[in-house]
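Record 1 of the preview.
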Amino acid sequence: AVVSRQSTGKQWYQRRVRGCYSGCYCPEGTTEPIWCPAGYYCPKCVLNSYFPEMIFQTATTLALLCTLGATDILCPPGTFSEGEALSEDDCHLCYPGYYCPEGSRSGAESLCPTGYFCPVGSGDPMSCPAGYYCPYSGMEEPQLCNTGHYCPEGTDVPTPCPAGTYSMTNGAPTVDDCFPCYSGCYCPEGTSEPIWCPAGYYCPNSGMEEPQLCSTGHYCPQGTDVPTPCPAGTYSMTNGAPTVDDCFPCYSGCYCLEGT
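->
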């Protein structure tokens, strides 16, 4: 890049860079740094690797060009250097849980955000892959999605399977991995395994979200999908009867059909 500055060669800053001063140049065999003359620019002179180039000069302004050679480099993405880096050998891998864009000066340059993970040497955050989640900032590796949930790409919090479905699979990537609950069971939101309908209740359909109370004249053992009617000659006035023992003999003077 061309820059302009009103100055003379001896007014350049003097900072030692590996033996030769900035603002000087050092041809091969130099025993003492040589000041850049007016019309030249020597920002980072290194022995036998950098020479000034004259562009043009006016009465008030020196137009200067910094030629590449001894200038420090920008460490590539995924690496950093706390000081000047004259080659990639001076660059170090970014710390786990952080990412380092090009030119980073710290191994903890940027904290990895939620929904992403950053292994050692990351130049950019890596999106959590499908089937995994990244709940915290600064994560080094993703976590496998829990059963009863699914995790699309970039997930920070697993999504529970909808009520009426379940997933027994770790690492489910989509809602299509949540299957309808089968009859005789029910599945609240986030179910990892279908739950048997408890005694006194029934679950007549697949995809049930919650069990239904057993109706009068019937009884419902655990896992019932269709209530069982009380036998003929018995009756039950009770909702939620769990066993046939809750069906009582019809009393004299009456009759009781099945399911009474």
